[in-house]
UniProtKB/TrEMBL annotation:
Residues 280-400 form the ABC3 transporter permease C-terminal domain. Keywords: Cell membrane, Membrane, Transmembrane, Transmembrane helix. It comes from the Bacteria. It is found in: Cell membrane. Pfam families: FtsX, MacB_PCD. The chain crosses the membrane at residues 20-46, 275-301, 329-351, 377-396. InterPro entries: ABC3_permease_C, Lipoprotein-release_system, MacB_PCD. This is FtsX-like permease family protein. Its main location: membrane. Belongs to the ABC-4 integral membrane protein family. LolC/E subfamily. Residues 27-123 form the MacB-like periplasmic core domain.
Length: 408
């Protein structure tokens, strides 16, 4: 062990016998420990929230979505579909027609987001885990068309899957005529569906009705046009890379975005909030570490004669500074290790037992999600080291100067 650390360790353990300096040192250790533990836990919660949102998006949103660069619809044909399917990493391509429509069930009406999908939608398996009642099917026996309905739509219209008499009626304004009265049912195209399944993900998807694309295309008058193409990526491939390959293949006529790009605003907001919280907690750790400054300052006053003796024995100012810097490092390191250990333990317990609940009946998860990322733990350790050096340097320098000019 280096001489400066040997002396610092001796000072650290011997001064515990002196009440006042010992109390300040312990307060400093406790403050650093609590601040470090809070940073580990809070950053892990933000990581968990980001991971949870990605899981939510994956339940409904496509891995890669292709939309027209201009307008809201585009012509599609087998050549275009095959061009997308030929890209490495593409597993399924689902054709989509999507727009707002008026839904009526019995005497109740609401505006819904009607999404028409082809047969590959069921092969994706995305909504399998979100179905809370009924089944995931677009056609029944005899070719009866079914609708897959969001929980919010079901509640708003009081839809019952057991009622085989009352259909779900979807209406969309007719195109090509300017003389129709929009208050008349003749102004709308009509589509009748039988409710076949209810899904729930979270409130942003609560206005969706999913139906066979052939019927939705006819209802909206798309005539071979599509709103988008949804691509499912093969396991082992990254959505970002596949989306770039598709974009290179299709050119400027289309906008190709992966799932993170589709939800970039929310993910960016989570990361910014995480950054600002990390900065705030860093300042809290700095405030807690101020006690190290006072502890070292008083220790420097107490050890003036010892420092003067070290100078007489040939010590240099650099050695004295290193002794007090090492003293501050020992205090901070003890607190940081305790805080890191406590934070990791709390996160592991939350993952296993879910002690802290979300407190929302409509949440997909019962407890707050947490996710430990070792980069965050490393970042927290680096922050503590930097703060320790900042608050320890001035007392260490003063101790070196005071001991050198002290008369013997």
């Amino acid at each position: 062990m280096h001489l400066s650390y040997r002396i610092a360790v001796r000072y650290f353990f011997s001064r515990n016998k002196r009440s006042f300096i010992s109390v300040i040192a312990r307060i400093a250790m406790a403050g650093v420990a609590v601040g470090t533990m809070a940073m580990v836990v809070v950053l892990s919660v933000f990581n968990g929230m980001e991971d949870l949102n990605r899981k939510i998006f994956k339940t409904f949103d496509a891995d890669v979505k292709i939309t027209p660069a201009e307008g809201k619809r585009f012509k599609t044909d087998n050549a275009l579909i095959q061009k997308v399917r030929s890209v490495e990493g593409v597993r399924l391509v689902t054709q989509v027609v999507e727009d707002n429509a008026l839904a009526q069930y019995g005497n109740q009406q609401i505006i819904v987001r009607l999404k028409g999908v082809d047969s590959t939608f069921q092969r994706q398996g995305q909504l399998d885990t979100a179905i809370i009642e009924g089944t995931l099917k677009l056609y029944g026996q005899g070719g009866t068309p079914y609708g897959i309905i969001a929980e919010g739509v079901r509640n708003a219209l009081s839809i019952s899957l057991e009622d085989i008499i009352t259909p779900l009626q979807l209406m969309y304004p007719k195109t090509g005529s300017k003389t129709l009265n929009l208050t008349s049912s003749e102004a709308f195209n009509h589509l009748l569906l039988r409710p076949g399944g209810i899904f729930f993900i979270e409130t942003r998807y609560d206005d969706y009705v999913i139906a066979p694309i052939a019927l939705v295309e006819k209802l909206m008058g798309y005539e071979g046009e599509r709103s988008s193409l949804e691509v499912q990526v093969m396991p082992g491939y990254k959505e970002g890379k596949v989306s770039r390959r598709i974009a290179d293949q299709l050119g400027d006529r289309f906008v190709v975005r992966d799932r993170d790009s589709l939800n970039s605003d929310l993910l960016r907001a989570i990361r910014l909030e995480k950054l600002f919280v990390a900065i705030t907690l860093s300042f809290i750790i700095l405030v807690a570490a101020i006690n190290i400054f006072f502890s070292l300052s008083m220790l420097a006053i107490e050890k003036k004669k010892d420092v003067s003796m070290l100078y007489a024995l040939g010590a240099t100012p650099g050695l004295i500074r290193r002794i007090f810097l090492a003293e501050g490092a020992i205090v901070a390191l003890s607190g940081a290790l305790a805080g890191l250990g406590g934070g990791i333990l709390l996160c592991v317990l939350q993952l296993k037992y879910g002690f802290v609940s979300m407190g929302m009946a409509t949440s997909l998860v019962d407890a707050y999600p947490v996710k430990l990322i070792w980069e965050d733990i490393l970042y927290t350790g680096v922050i503590v080291v930097i703060i320790t050096m900042l608050v320890s340097y001035i007392p260490a320098r003063r101790a070196a100067e005071a001991g050198r000019i002290l008369p013997t």
